[in-house]
Amino acid sequence: MKFFPALKALVFLACLIPLARLGWFGYTSQLGANPIELITRSTGTWTLVFLMITLGVTPLRKLTGWSWLIKLRRMLGLYAFFYVCLHFTTYIWLDQFFDPQTIYKDIIKRPFITVGFAAFLLLIPLAVTSTNKMVKRLGGKRWQQLHRLVYIIATFGVIHYWWLVKKDITQPVIYAIVLSVLLGYRALVWLRKTKSANLSSSHSKPMLKPSQQNS
Amino acid sequence: MLIKQPSDIKPSEITDKRIYQSRRDFMGAATKSIAAVAAGIALPGLLSHSQEVEAATAAKLSGLQKSSFSVTDPLTPYKDVTSYNNFYEFDTDKSSPAQMAGTLNTRPWTVAVEGEVKRPKVYDIEDLLKLVPLEERIYRLRCVEGWSMVIPWVGFSLSELIKQVEPTGNAKFVEFTTLHDPKQFPGQRSGVLDWPYVEGLRIDEAMNPLTLMAVGLYGEVLPNQNGAPVRLVVPWKYGFKSAKSIVKIRFVSKPTNSSWMKANPREYGFFANVNPNVDHPRWSQAKERRIGEFFKRETLMYNGYGDQVARMYAGLDLKKYF
After folding, report:
1. A126 near A147, Cβ under 8 Å?
2. What integer is the mean pLDDT of B45-57?
């Protein structure tokens, strides 16, 4: 595709809009009464959004036939990591102010923080192995197996959101539905594959012996 | 009628809200006013509307007495007090109530005081405002979510009202009910809580001189998003205990199963006293973020009102009765 480099640059910039928006809100004092809460919520939300978008690349590529989409996936995934880093930094710096005791207690005692922290930790090896060099070093198959961790990470992310909400779970439910569709698509593909593999393997034998087909 | 023209107020008795707002807020408001006036010159209809709004928001409460219960902590800016609200009757988002508050109509308004009392009565809001001289009380407010404010409420002790209706010996608890009208409270169309919102206090808690019926803040009539026209303020308990836009006060013999207890009995108890040593099952209550402050501060036992309230809970297992 001729315009791909320009498109990629555009997507790169678009992905920075959520951060720019926060910056603008800060500059024009529109962060509201509880700015730290707003920043934490916003960076967390955008982490989830980027995880969903990243998971949406493959289904969308299959549906539309736009093979170039795959070339954006790494960048989108790294943006999820970028926003989770901001989210985590906001929590340990602005929210807890590097109070190791409180942070430790939070991670151990509070299920929503435990699961969110686990998701963050699991995302680190994926970010680290995102380079071409690392794909080569690991080998395509092992790399792919490792990167399937994103299914667990995204699930943990949605649970993290669900468990922190006081009562109105509308938003987490929306993310859960989107994630179910994205993971459900993969489950269907996988089921179809194993089915057709089974069919072809069970068909292959009689095909070799045509006489048996008539019996 | 206690709502008077600005000229009737002694300047010494009004808390000037501008003092508590940053220059930037003030400049912002000024810019908006200029814009409103400019728009008004072009569209006379708009001007009269904006003047109406101005008049409504600027309704001052006069002759306020000072209270010895007031704390000396710096006040949370008016803008934050009136734009960051948990009021699920409008919406679960905290910035929505201020934007949606226009759907609530606070006149006419009555409060039925009933149940185990010798003199049940339906009070008109205007009579409630004249019941006893109004006081300004600067209270800390600690939300169960972990943030806090310092608000100059205007109101009167609930005990004054209770004395008038003369509770019987069976009146062990007091139940407060918020207006239930999905037309005025669009949030009530969702099933996020079991409507109407009900809250309860033990009779001694209700009689505690700290327990306030608030009808205003910052020397002005209570904004709708803060629970107009009359709300409860129980400063040693988490904010959700302080029911807003009250239409019924009922004296009963059994503790109220409040809306939040029904929503999640494991997380929200009847007492809901501010307690840094008993965590919410999903988050710590040891610290709080005072709105407007950067660093979190330690949460105080009973929100710092232990001297006035601790004896009511002597011998009570606070981990069990949270």
Report:
1. yes
2. 40
Residue in A173, A182, A178 with CA at minimum distance from that of residue A151: A182
Provide the terminal-to-terminal Cα distance of chain B, rounded to the nearest Å: 41
Structure tokens at A157: 């992310």
What's the pLDDT score for residue A214? 44
Q: At B84, which CATH number?
A: 3.90.420.10
CB count in 10 Å sphere of residue B172 = 15
Give this prediction's pTM: 0.81
Q: Which chain A positions have a beta carbon within 8 Å of B83's beta carbon?
A: 32-33
Q: Which of A105-109, A154-158, B46-50, B177-181 comes out lowest in average pLDDT? A: B46-50
Residue A167 sits at the chain B interface (C-beta within 8 Å): yes
Location of structure tokens 């001052």: B60
H helices present in chain A, as ranges: 4-14, 17-27, 35-64, 70-89, 100-109, 111-128, 132-138, 140-147, 149-164, 170-208, 210-213
Residues in B lying within 8 Å of A, measured between beta carbons: 24-25, 79-80, 83-84, 88, 92, 94-95, 144-145, 147, 190, 192-193, 263-264, 279, 282-284, 286-287, 289, 291-292, 294-296
Q: Does the distance separating the beta carbons of B264 and A110 come in below 8 Å? A: no
Which of 45-104 (A) contact B at CB < 8 A?
94-97, 102
Total structural domains within chain B:
1
Q: Is residue B51 in a domain? A: no
As for how many domains chain A has, the answer is: 1
Q: Give the mean pLDDT of chain A.
A: 91
User: Residues of B comprising the binding site?
Assistant: 85, 88-89, 143, 178, 226, 231, 242-244
Whole domain around residue B154: which residue ranges? 65-313
The ipTM estimated for the assembled molecules is 0.79
Kindly give, in sequence order, each residue whose CB lies less than 8 Å from that of residue B256, ignoring residues fewer than 6 positions away: B173, B175, B198, B199, B200, B270
Spatial separation of the C-alpha atoms in residues B38 and B20, rounded to whole Å: 27
- Alpha carbon distance B85, A137 (integer Å): 54
**How far lies A204's CA from each of A155, A199, A209, B98, in Å?**
39, 8, 9, 70
Residue ranges of the annotated binding site of B for Mo-molybdopterin are 85, 88-89, 143, 178, 226, 231, 242-244
Q: What is chain B's length?
A: 322
A residues 182-211 near B, CB within 8 Å? none
Cα distance between residue B61 and residue A86, in whole Å:
46
In a domain, A5, yes or no: no
**Domain residues for A132?**
11-180
Q: Is B221 exposed, middle or buried (0-12, 13-18, 19+ CB in 10 A)?
A: buried
User: Measured between alpha carbons, how far is B193 from A83 in angstroms, rounded to an integer?
Assistant: 33
